[in-house]
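Section 5.1 Outputs to date
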Amino acid sequence: MNFGIISLILRKKLPYLLAGLAAIVLGCDRLLDFGGRVGHGAEIQLIQDSATVRHLIGQQEVDGQQEQQGLQAVINERQTEFRAFEQANFMAVDLDVHPDRYIPRRLASIAAMNQRPTILVAARRADIDFLQHVFNARCGQKATQESYYARIRIHDDGAAKGAAGWVCVSEAMFLADPSEKEKRAATVTMRIILDSPEVRGLIASQEMSEVAEWQNVQRIVREANSARRRQGPLDEELALHPERYIPKRLAFAEAMKRQPTVQAVAQNSYCRFLQRSRASCLNQPIPAGDHHYVRIRITSGPSKGQEGWACMFENVWLNGPLLP
């Protein structure tokens, strides 16, 4: 196909495409100025027009508007929750990225402790005696780390025998081994801060100042976890439980299924739009285009002259503006 043929096709079809787009955007009365095509590869059943059908559609227009308002409120609430989730999640990540914003006193205490005299000791864990645990004097460089200071003494027969002082205890240091036997036999290298009145004073001060900082860290973590639990995928929730959000629309759909239909309309038959309703023909609450019931008249094929209701953009589509 050469460029000339393509250009000719575009010139002939472009007005129809633009007009169809305008009908979608303008909607309502403008739709009646356009022709349509039904079936799109398969024959369809038109719902026969009747007073009952018109009453059902009229009632659903009212009920649908109320349900849509409720659904929009749910969406707005979830968007508000999502913004809160983003903020809480950012704070939780920021805890360890910028600990200086959340635990400045702990970091200052760690810096002061690191300036005290230390020794480096390698000993079996079985040869370590814990003399004192100060759980509230945390020594983790990250805000969420629960490492703490403990006073220990080495009692083996090696060069480190009798060494005593303060170490930073972490789970990785003492609880990561697969068995108690292996844990006790393994050797750990520790940086021991030698005990002194100044060191004990630093730890006591850190123990007091840590309370407020740790409570703030825990609050941020709790809020982030709570926000994550609330922030489920809304689209999935709506798809799995439409009965919670559009019960009247689902009841309306069931009622429409029970209405008489006219003879099957052959695929790709042409039609004219007679009436546009605001009654949705989707069984899912997720907005997915302007699917609604329209009343049409078939204008070609063996079903020519038949009238009935069909679902717009489901089994009937715009074809182009009606010729004068």
